Amino acid sequence: MNAYNESSYTDLIYRFMDGDTSGVEQNVLFGAMAKDSELQFEFQQAVSIYKGFSADKVVLTPPASLTNSLFVSAGFKPPMPSAAAAKIGLISKFRYYTTPVLSAAVGALVTAFVFLGINSSDNTGLQNNNSSTSVTNHHELSEISASVIPFVRSSEAKNISSSNSNMIKNEEQTIAPMQECSRVFSSAENSFSLTPGVNFTQHNNDYSMLYKNDNIASFSLPEFNIMNLEIEVRGMTGLAFLPSRTIQPEPFSIMNNMGIGIKYKFNQTHSAGIVAGKESLQMYSFNKIGESYQYNHEPNLSWIGACYRWTGDEFYGTLNPYTEFTGAYSQFGPVGKATFGIAYNPENIISMSLGIEGTMLTYKFLGDLKTTEKISVVYSIGLHF
Amino acid sequence: MKKDLSKYNDKQLYLLVKTGNARQKEEAFAELYTRYSRGIYAYCRRILGSEDLAEDIFQETFLSFLKTTEQEREMTNVQAFLLRIARNLCLNLNRQRKTKIFSLDDFDFGIEDNRLEMSEVSKIIISALDILPEEQRESVILQVYYDMTYQDMSEFLNLPISTVRNRVTRGKQTIRQVLAPYFEKTDVKL
Fold it and tell me: Which residue of chain B is at minimal alpha-carbon distance from A75?
């Protein structure tokens, strides 16, 4: 007597798919299927359902963001999500360095332009001075002297040079520009007679004062640092983050990892001022869109504060060691910075520096006070007024 | 040196979460998470339907689990314990929200192509799950997504094995009925 009806065979199919049938039941099932095409079709459908479930099961994994969020909420370090790891590719790494490289390039260009501009204006001044003063009159002078007085020291006259502010003056001939004249060329009058009855007047130009005038012989740069102020633009590139987390690179953000400051120089050693910047630090955050907690880069951390810089004595010419301390406030909490580095001061108006900086941010997250730290390379260009 | 916790059984891991230092606690929790997160997540997703709700409940399940480690209790079956937390949370949530009741008429996917991809079959199956009676749906989900045997389900749901088996079979048969029109007019790529 057959103990199985149609419903029982259906049950057997699903139990077989679940691995819940005995050897005897399997024999019964396959025996029935061999004779019944409907049962075969039903079996085929059951296999399809089984495969459909399996396919669905494979894709049902907790997203990396959910895992991270859970671990952070539990107070643990988020595990490295494989999806995030895959995104940290070569292109992302390049993009990570785009901002600092660009800011460094812009800094270098600004430096070059300012430096060339200063030199260019100096040379122009020098040329103007030379052109206007290149003893336009010395030929005339020597001609006059030579024709009138054979003893005139024409060779000396040729060496005379003066600036716009100078003039050559003697009793009989005055060399323009008279109006601007403040000094310099004096002449002594020596009279002597070569032929009885005929008096010659020798104009013995004394140009020795030319060499006493600094304005004539040297072309010093204009005096900067009148106000003892320095405006500094800096770039900051994160080298290491603490606590150590492997997370995705920060999103690209214009003007990120940059700062600007204005400092007053009390003297060569001490200066202090106001600084502001925008940079990324790794920190816990709450994502309102996904309503999840994450540990990630905060690329728009803006801060403003005060700084003090100590500058050491020069070494190797124009290099100065320096150390700087900054206390600032950001939208997330207080920020502290300590920087050590070397400043290069090729001109009075401009300086460049390179250093290592440690940054610490203290912020509140889920009622707890947390800190995040970063070690960066800082590079800056400063203009002095 | 970091221990290989994959060799530890659930009870040992639970004990580490409960009594270990901060590092041991974190590592043991991570190991338990690795073992059971997929099952719990799949269960939440298919029971609740909504991805957002499932993620909330999933997170709450593991956080509640952690809280229990602060209490004095004997842990006998971590897997079942986690699932029980998730189940209670899902049931509470389902009671609170008004669940749409589907009927067989709701299922017309308008499939014109006569070749049905497995991903499409999956979608239909998932949708068909929604029309199952609650007890059948849960039994199917526990069996399919949480890899529970009938014996496990019997213990977990505190029901006779025959009842559990019957629910699973009836549930799958209903799914087959939902899929029948598509099976008839299409070829399924197996």
Answer: B26
Judged by DSSP in three states, A75 sits in: coil
Question: Exposed, middle or buried: residue B54 (CB in 10 Å: 0-12, 13-18, 19+)?
Answer: buried
User: CB burial class (10 A; 0-12, 13-18, 19+) of residue B127?
Assistant: middle
Task: Give the mean pLDDT of A221-250.
Answer: 71
**Residue B30 sits at the chain A interface (C-beta within 8 Å):** yes
Q: Shortest CA distance to A48 belongs to which of B100, B8, B128?
A: B128
Q: Does A69 lie at the interface with B, CB-CB under 8 angstroms? A: yes
**A39-53, A165-179, B31-45, B168-182: least confident range:** A165-179
CA distance A133 to A127: 10
User: Which residue type, as a one-letter code, is found at position B84?
Assistant: R
CA–CA separation, A365 vs A284, rounded Å?
Answer: 7
Q: Which residues contact B132 (CB under 8 A, 6 or more apart)?
A: B140, B171, B174, B175
Range from A44-53, A302-311, B104-113 that averages highest in pLDDT: A302-311
Q: A60 at the B interface (CB within 8 A)?
A: yes
Lowest mean pLDDT: which of A126-135, B5-14, B84-93, B94-103?
A126-135
Q: What is the percentage of chain A residues whose pLDDT exceeds 90? A: 15
pLDDT for A245 equals 56
CB of A313 within 8 Å of a chain B CB? The answer is: no
Rounded percentage of chain A residues whose pLDDT exceeds 70 = 55
Q: How far apart are CA A85 and CA A88, in angstroms?
A: 5
Position A43 scores a pLDDT of 85
Residue that the structure tokens 């070749």 belong to: B115
pTM: 0.45
3-class state of residue A198 by DSSP? strand
Pairing of the two strands B115-116 and B187-188: parallel
Strand partners, A364: A369
Angle formed by the axes of helices B161-185 and B150-157, nearest 10°:
120
**Residue A176: pLDDT over 60:** no
pLDDT average, residue stretch A306-334: 89
Looking at this predicted complex, what is its ipTM?
0.80
What is the C-alpha to C-alpha distance for residues A40 and A43, in angstroms, rounded to an integer? 5
Over 70: is that where the pLDDT of A170 sits?
A: no
pLDDT attached to residue A100: 64
Query: Minimal Cα–Cα distance from A358 to chain B, Å?
Result: 27
d(CA B174, CA B29): 39
Whole-number Å distance between alpha carbons of A137 and A169: 11
Residue of A nearest to B26 (CA): A76
Contact by Cβ (8 Å): B179, B111: no
Q: Do A279 and A301 meet the contact criterion of CB atoms below 8 Å apart?
A: yes
B160: amino acid identity, one letter: P
**Which 3 state secondary structure label does DSSP give B73?**
coil
Cα separations (Å) of B78 from A235, A256, B34, B45?
A: 52, 47, 13, 20
List residues bridging with A293 in a β-sheet.
A286
